[in-house]
Amino acid sequence: MKLTLKVWRQKNSKAKGELESYQVEASEHMSFLEMMDVLNEQLIVEKKSPIAFDHDCREGICGSCSMTINGSPHGPQSGTTTCQLHMRKFKDGDTIVVEPWRSSVFPVIKDLTVDRGAFDRIIQSGGYISVNTGQAPDGNAIPIEKDLASNAFDAAACIGCGACVAACPNGSAMLFTAAKVSHLNQLPQGKVEQTRRTASMVAQMDKEGFGMCSNVGACEAECPKEISIEHIARMNREYVASIFGGRKS
Amino acid sequence: MNLDSKIPAGALGDKWTDYKATMPLVAPNNKRRLDVIVIGTGLAGASAAATMGELGYNVKAFTFHDSPRRAHSIAAQGGINAAKNYQNDGDSVYRLFYDTIKGGDYRSREANVHRLAEVSADIIDQCVAQGVPFAREYGGLLENRSFGGVQVSRTFYARGQTGQQLLIGAYSALSRQISTGKVTMYNRHEMMDLVMVDGKARGIIARNLLTGELERHSAHCVVLATGGYGNVFYLSTNAMGSNVTAAWRAVKKGALMANPCFTQIHPTCIPVSGDYQSKLTLMSESLRNDGRVWVPKKKEDAVAIREGKKTALDIAEGDRDYYLERRYPAFGNLVPRDVASRAAKVACDQGNGVAPTGLAVFLDFASAIQRYGKSAAHSQGLDESDQALIKKLGEQVVEEKYGNLFEMYEKISGENPYKFPMKIYPAVHYTMGGLWVDYNLQTNVEGLFALGECNFSDHGANRLGASALMQGLADGYFVIPYTIGTFLSKEIRTPEIANDSPEFIKAEKETADRINRLANSNGSQSVESFHRRLGKIMWEYCGMSRNADGLTKGRKMVRELRDEFYKDVFVPGDADEYNPELEKALRVADFMEHGELMILDALDRAESCGGHFREEYVTEDGEAKRNDADFTYVSAWEWDDNDPKLHKEELVFDNVELKTRSYK
Ligand SMILES: Cc1cc2nc3c(=O)[nH]c(=O)nc-3n(C[C@H](O)[C@H](O)[C@H](O)COP(=O)(O)OP(=O)(O)OC[C@H]3O[C@@H](n4cnc5c(N)ncnc54)[C@H](O)[C@@H]3O)c2cc1C
Ligand code: SF4
Ligand code: FES
User: Fold this and answer.
1) Does the reported pTM lie above 0.95?
2) Complex ipTM above 0.90?
3) What is the rounded CA–CA span in Å between residue A212 and residue A177?
4) Ligand 1 in contact with B579 (CB < 6 A)?
5) Domains of chain A with bracketed CATH
6) What is the CATH number of domain B505-639?
7) Whose CA is nearest to atom 33 of ligand 1?
8) What does the CA dihedral B565, B571, B574, B578 come to, rounded to 10 degrees?
C-alpha cells in the first residue's frame, strides 16, 4: 500500500515544529512502528534526519510509544497502543497525520518524542505503599476478595503512556492519577496511607500544571488499557474526604 | 586467574543462614557515607536500588529509559515461581532447587540456586505488601499455576502481565526512595564506560541521552542490572532497547563473561513474516497446556499450505504429525523449551513447515475446544451431540483462559486463532550467560556487582519458565543488600571518591573518542542494516543448533562485518544532541564483539546441553548429548581482541546426582 504521511518534525524542545510530508510504501502486515522504521530507513539512506519516536517493548505494555495518529492518541483502533496498531487498519492511498502527544506538561524533546517526567513525579509523591524490604507478613496473611482484587487490577493495568492527557481537551492527568490511587487505595495493604496518598498525588498533579477534569471522558475512550473513568469518581470522593479530614474507605 | 566462587562452607541448606549470621555489617552511620551506583532499573536494579536506599546507602540509579517503569521486565507475561507450597502439592525449597538445577542441565552452581529457592517465598510476601495484584482464588488466597518442566503448581501470576505488576511494585518502592532523597534517579542516561581506580570499580561515564553530554559519576562500588543480550540476534522477544553495552564495557575493563553461548530459544512465538520485521512476539508458554503442536505428514500438503492453496483445516487427522506427542509420549506438548524448539526446527528443516517462509508449525486448540465444550455441555445438561453447541461452549472456555493471547495473536497476524490453528516458531528469548559473579554477586573485578539477567548465575544451560523474575527480585531485594556489605564493610574509611581523578578524565576522553568515531562516520549503510546482518549470522551459525564448521565460519563473518561496520556505517545527526541512531550504533558495535565471544564459547563447548545444541554431539535418536566428564564447568572469558582467554570454574555437585534429562 502507498501512503502519504504528514509527520511532525521538531529539531528540539526550543525549535518551532511543522508537519512534513513523506511517501511510504507499506505492507498491511506491518505494525505502525515498523512502517515508521521503513520510512526512517529511507530517510537514512537519503542522508536525512530520521524521525525520533519513543518505543521499546512493541507489545503494548511498556507505555513508551506515543503517537497521535489522525488526531487520536494511539490511532483509530480502541484498546490498542501505537505499537500494536497494524497497517491493515488503513487503506491504500491514505494520508496519515502523525503528531506527538499534545500537552504543555509533556514538552516535545524531538519530533514525536515527549518528556513525561511529570508522571514519575506524581508517583513519587505517594504512588506507593510504605513497606521496606523484609517487613512484609506472609503473602496469604490478608485474604483479599477476588472481585476486589480484580477491580484493583483493572486500575493497576495502566501503562503510564499519557494518552489520557493527550486526549483530554483540558490536558488533565486525572485518569492516570486516579488509576494509581484506585489501585492502591482499594487494597487492604494500601488503605493505611490512603488519605495522605490521595491528597499529595492530587497536589503534585496540580503543581505539574495538568488541567482540570470536566468529565469529558475522552481519556477513557483513548486509553489503550481501557481504564474506566469510574476510578476518577472514586478518587474524587476520597479527595473530598481527605480535605475534610475523614478517613473514608 | 583464580576464580573463587566464595561459596560458604557448611551444608547446602545452612550456607545462606550461616552467611547472614556471620557476615560483616556496615553500621548505619557508615552506610550514610557510602555511595553506590546502580545501572539499570528493571526488576533487579529497581529492587536493589530501593532496598539499598532503605538501608541508608546513597544510591545513584541510571536507566536509558525515560522512566524506570519502562524496563524490559515489564513485558514478562507468565509468572514468577516461589516455593511457598500453598497448594500443598509437595513443593519445597529443595524441590525448587532441584528442578532449577535439572532444568539447567546441570550447568549451574548448587549454592547460588539453593539460596534463590530459599528467598523465593520472601519475594511473594514483599510484592503482596507492595500492592502487587496477584491472581486470587474465591477464598481470597493467592492462586498458582504450573509451568513447563516441573510437577508442582508454584507459579504466581497477575493475569498476563506479571512482569508489569512486579515492576510497578519495585518502581513504587524505588519512587519512595527517590522522594526521600536516598536514591537519585538518572533517567535517559546510558552508561558508556566503567571507571576503575586502583583496581576497583569506582564509577561510570554516562551519556545524558537528551543532550549528548558525558558525565562522570563516582561511587564506592558499581552494581550492574542491565538485562540480557538476546538482541545480538536482532530478532528476539526482547524489547528493542535491550543491549549488552554496560556488561560489555565491564568486560573490556577486565570482568569475565560467563557461558555467553547459553541462549534460550522459546518455542512459541509468532513467526517472522517479512524483512521489515523489528521484533518477535512471544505467545505464553501456558498455551502449551492446551494447544497441540503439529505439521502435515506429507510434504505436498505443507507446500500447498505455504502457497495458500490449502489451510490446516484441509489436512485430515491421519495426515498430521503431532511430533512432540510422537517423540516424547511422557511429556508430550509440555517438554522443556529447548527440546520443543529443536523439534520444531527439525520438522521445518525436513520441509514440513507451514508459513510462506516454511518456518512455522501449528499450535492447534481444536481438541481442547472439543474437550472443554463436551465437558461444559455435560455439566450443564445440554445436548452433547450438537457439534455447533460444543464448539461454542468450548471456545468460551478457551477464551476465558487465553482470551488476551488470542486477541494479541489476531492483532499481529490478522488471523482468527479460534478458526485456524496458530502458527508459531521458536525465537530468541533469554540469555542464561552473563557476567561471571561469585556467591556475593561480585564479578572478578572488585567493587563491581551484577544482578538479574545480566549475570550468569542461576539458570545453567536452560532457564525454566517463571524463574527469571524470581531471580531478578531475589538478587535485588534479598541478596545484594546483604552481600554488598562484604565489600563495603572494608570501605568505611574510604572518603568520597573524586570524579576528577586522571582515571575518570581518561575514561571520559576514551568514551568521547569512541562516540565521535561513530558519530562522524559518513558511510552509506544504516546501523539497522548492520544489526540485521549480524543477527542473521548469529542465528544461522550460533542459533538453535551449532556445529564447528558453521561456528568457525560465523566467527569470520562477524569479524568481517565489524570491519565493514566501522568503514561504512552512516550515523545521522551529531554527538551533542538527542540522537537515537547514535545510541543504536554504539550498542551494535558492542554486540559485534560480544557476538564473536558467544561463537567462541559455543565452539569450545564440545557437548550438547540445555539450549546449547552441537550437531556433532547427539544420541542415536537425535537428542542432546551432554559430556559431564569434560564440560562440567562454567566458562569465563577474558576479552582480547585477537585471542580471548578462557578461564574455567569447575562445578561441584555435592547434593545432586548428574543424570541425563529424559522426557520420553
Ligand atoms: C516477552 C518476554 C516474556 C517473559 N516472561 C517471563 C515470565 O513470565 N517469567 C519470568 O520469570 N521471566 C520472563 N521473561 C524474562 C524476564 O522478563 C527477564 O529476564 C527479566 O525481566 C530481566 O530483568 P532485569 O532486571 O535483569 O533486566 P531488564 O528488565 O532488562 O532491565 C534492564 C535495565 O537496565 C537498563 N540499562 C541497560 N543498559 C544500560 C546502560 N548501558 N545504561 C543505563 N541503563 C541501562 C535498562 O534501561 C533497564 O532499566 C520474559 C522475557 C520476555 C522477553
Ligand atoms: S490511564 Fe490509560 S491512557 Fe492514561 S497513562 Fe494509563 S494507560 Fe495511558
Ligand atoms: S512500544 Fe511498548 S507500549 Fe508501545
Assistant:
1) yes
2) yes
3) 12
4) no
5) 2-109 (3.10.20.30), 117-245 (1.10.1060.10)
6) 1.20.58.100
7) B40
8) -110
